[in-house]
């Protein structure tokens, strides 16, 4: 065994306005960083084309979702357009205890719930480079009607103030640069004294010096 060992993993919460590129950034990070796992959300909506249960989402019935809520099995949850979404708590707890880190991407409201229930998390805000670019990305996705798109952009402007509640900010202008910054944040957090078993390492060095 060499080096300082970590006591346990930690939770990284990536958040930001809709269209900032959270999911795309997470996918890019997972290609570059080791020892970090993605928290797959649970949802009551039916699977979309090509979606795999347990990979893209955990698909459950509304009854099962309510059971998870009542049992405290969800770290955060929300209902969007009649469908419920949430973050399973057990996966995060077990993975962190195994010494691995977990990343999840949620909206601003979800991040607030997570902070209330898991204040030890590392909170990263993903900022769009401009509102024009945010609009371009949202339009390119083609998911929203014009009225819904306007409402989404208005909400994004209001959510910009939430950045002051976070630990780090990344402007997502270039995906590769943003991924490297997120990886650097995780690397730095892994080196925090509070996360490492420095006492055992110091004692071992003392023994070697005798």
Structure description:
With 210 residues, this protein is of the alpha/beta class. It has a domain at 11-39 and 100-209: P-loop containing nucleotide triphosphate hydrolases (Rossmann fold, 3-Layer(aba) Sandwich), CATH 3.40.50. It is 44% helix and 19% strand. It has eight helices and nine strands. The chain has helices at 22-32, 62-70, 89-97, 108-117, 131-141, 146-159, 175-190, 198-209; strands at residues 11-15, 36-38, 42-43, 58-59, 74-80, 83-88, 101-105, 122-127, 168-171. The chain has a five-stranded parallel beta sheet, sandwiched between helices. A four-stranded mixed beta sheet has the order 4-3-6-5. α1 packs across α7 (175-190). The relative contact order is 0.21.
Which outline best applies?
A: globular
Distance between the termini: 19 Å
- The secondary structure category is alpha/beta
Q: Would you tell me which CATH topology of the domain at 11-39 and 100-209 applies? A: Rossmann fold
Strand proportion? 15-25%
Number of helices: 8
Counted beta strands: 9
- Helices and strands, in order, run as EHEEEHEEHEHEHHEHH
CATH architectural group of the domain at 11-39 and 100-209: 3-Layer(aba) Sandwich
Superfamily (CATH H level) name of the domain at 11-39 and 100-209? P-loop containing nucleotide triphosphate hydrolases
How much is the average pLDDT?
A: 91
From the alpha carbons, calculate the radius of gyration and give it in angstroms. 19 Å
